[in-house]
Amino acid sequence: MILLRRRRVRESRVSRQARCGRKKTALITGASSGIGKATALYLAGLGYRVIGTSRSIGRLDALMSECEGNGRKFIPLELDVNSNDAVSRVLPDVVREHGPIDALVNNAGYGLWGPVETLTIDELKQQFETNFFAAVRMIQALVPDMVERRAGIVINISSVLGRLGTPFNGAYVASKFALEGISESLRTELSPFGVRVALVEPGLFRTEFQSNMVRGANAESPDISYAPYIEKYNRRHDRFQRFGGDPIKVARLIHKIIESDNPPFRNPIGMDARMGILGTRLLPENIYWPLMTKATLR
Length: 298
Ligand SMILES: NC(=O)c1ccc[n+]([C@@H]2O[C@H](COP(=O)([O-])OP(=O)(O)OC[C@H]3O[C@@H](n4cnc5c(N)ncnc54)[C@H](OP(=O)(O)O)[C@@H]3O)[C@@H](O)[C@H]2O)c1
Prior knowledge:
By secondary structure, the protein is of the alpha/beta class. It has helices spanning 2-11, 16-20, 34-45, 61-69, 84-98, 121-149, 170-190, 209-212, 227-241, 248-259, 271-282, 285-297, and strands at 25-28, 49-54, 74-78, 103-106, 112-113, 153-157, 196-202, 214-215, 266-269. The chain is built from twelve helices and nine strands.
C-alpha cells in the first residue's frame, strides 16, 4: 500500500515549473530550523524561489548564508504568523514584490506538553494560536489569489499525532486534529478551482522540536498523581528519541507533493508514523487502546 502510494506521487509528478516557464515560489512558515529549514534549503537547491518566515530575522541568518554561498534564491521574511496585523500588512507586499505564491507550506509549530487537567486555558489557546489559527490565517491571506489563478497548493504540516492521541500531548494532538479537520474541508472547497491541499504527517524527526517544547506551568510538579506515569513515559520517550529521522526526508516528500498534479491528501512519513496510523486503522479500539496504554505508561 505504501509502495503504491509512493509510486502514485512519482507517476503523477509533472513539472508544472517546466510547463509555465517560471520559477515556482514557495512560502514556508517556521523556516528557521528543523523541517522548515531543511525544506527551504532543499527547494532553493532545486531552483525554487523560497520565502521563509521566522519571528526573528536573525534566526534566518544561517539559512541565508548557506543559500548565498550556493547561489540559491532564499528570501527571509520576519513574520509573526500569530499576528493578524503582521500577516495582513506584510503578505500583500511580499506578493507584489515576488509574484504569486505557488506553494504555501504551513510548518510553524510547537508542542505543549502536560497532562490535560494541568494545562491552563491560556496555554491551550496559545497552542491553537500557532498550530491551528496561524495556518488558517496564512491560508486566508494567500488562497484567494490561488483561487483566482486556478493554481497552487497548500501543504499543512500536521503530525502522526494528528491521527492518534498519546498521553501528555493532548493539547498538541488536539491542535493537529483540528488542522487535519479543516484541511479536509478546505481540500473539497478548493477542488473546483484546481487548488490542491495536502497534509504531511511526520513521526519523530531530529529537529529543535523537543528542545522548543513548552511544558505546561503546572505539568511537572512532583506532587501530581501523574508523576510516576510521566516518569515512565519520559523514560520510554528518551529511548525512542535516537530513532528520529533526518528532516531532509520530509523536505523531499514536500517537494514531491508540490510537483504532483494529484497528490495523496494524507502523507505519513517515518516508519513510526506509518505503523502507528496503520494500527489505528486495522486494529479494533478494544485492542488498540490497551496496546497504546501499555506502550506509553506501563
Ligand atoms: N520534529 C518532529 O518530530 C515533528 C513530528 C511531527 C510533526 N512535526 C511538525 O513539524 C513542524 C516543524 O517542526 P520542527 O520539528 O521542524 O520543529 P523546530 O525545529 O522547533 O522548528 C519549528 C519552527 O516553527 C516556528 N515556531 C515555533 N514555535 C512558534 C511559535 N510559537 N510561533 C510561531 N512560530 C513558531 C519556529 O520559527 P521561529 O521560532 O524562528 O519563529 C521554527 O522555525 C511543526 O508544525 C511540528 O508540529 C514535527
